[in-house]
Request: fold
Amino acid sequence: MSDIASHADSDAHLDLLAGLSQRLLERARASGADQAEVSCSEDTGLNVNVRMGEVETVESTRDRGISVTVYFNGRKGSASTADLQDASLAATVDQACAIARHTEHDPAAGLADAELMATDLREFDSWHPWAIEADRAIDLALACEQAGRDFDPRLENSDGASVGSGSSLSVYANSHGFVGRERSTQHSLGCALIAGRGADMQRDGWYSIALAADELESAATIGRKAAERAVSRLAPRQIATGQYPVLYSAEIARSLIGHLLGAVSGGALYRRASFLLDSAGTQLFPDWFAIDELPFLPRGFRSAAFDGEGVATRESPLVAGGVLQRYVLGSYSARRLGLQTTANAGGVHNLQVAANGGDFEAMLAGMGRGLLVTELMGQGVNNITGDYSRGAAGFWIEDGKIQYPVDGITIAGNLKQMFAAIEAVGSDVDPRSHIRTGSILVGRMTVAGEG
Reply:
């Protein structure tokens, strides 16, 4: 796919980026910076899209980015370039220094503390290049779409199928002497189909994503799943407005965890723009509920030995016994809050939500009667108040069984109350994300439908 496909080639490119980082740090020091950090990345990719049996796009990408940040006694400046020429690199450092000399002093600015830098710089089996040519990728996408379209005669249209493959190399280095190297790959195959005609059309799809191509679901399986999902949504009904249990399917349930992360992240907290201010150490969830951060998972989507500032990552609970154990902080937000970084500069590293409710069928049976949500629309979430209101579609459940599709509804509540009202988490984990959760049952929400 590219000239960095092999382990040996990737090592050579990482060596190049690491050497480049050192030269930039040396120039920053020579320019008077008391601290400096450099991030270098090189990404390659192949993406193809087909629709209705025809090729729509074939795109090959190669991107490079070099970012330099310097600190002059709490004054920060940053500049970036994609040009590896010496003159351009020198100009980038000079520009960062010039910016820093014109910024205000910020006592929270600066590198993470030197003693927190990672020393165990292991890898997590995340480098699996896929030597796929464009013609083969096109054939896979066409086979995926055709398998779906052949599933049911009501599938007369398609939003297409796609294949993607990418690799990423990165180096982060700073003036503490830390140099961290990472490499990863990610591959995907997906399909979206349209069932029915006119005003009765329904769209749905399926996709698979993995760090290694041999872990992708087959093209035929993805096409059939996309077809089943689209056809199952035909002839939706309305439901009466009321208070009902709501079961978030696994791929939708992780959005609830995402809202939690947004509310406990350092930026929202020090800006006082979160409904979970001063919530560390308080009970937010039922006492059986737990979320653990697991940065060392082999082939984890966000596995890493260090965060975006070089701080050593560590396994730790985010929620235990229903109690929020900590916030999600990098060094800047931690200083603003009078706390210490949680090694989350750049985000969290693989979250695992503990299950207590069995598989998907057990979750349906446990709910008995209510709404299964398989799609959310809109952005109706207020991070300051926690008020939650989103358009939704899914299925009505009676006697623990799916009865018929529903759409054109709105589900509403307050996130703090919704967290407390979670009754079960399924073991039906959707593996396509760094937030690993099964379906989540919220005991009661307002559902606005007919009347």
Residues 37 and 174 are 4 Å apart (CA to CA). The radius of gyration is 24 Å. Residues 7-30 form the longest helix (24 residues).
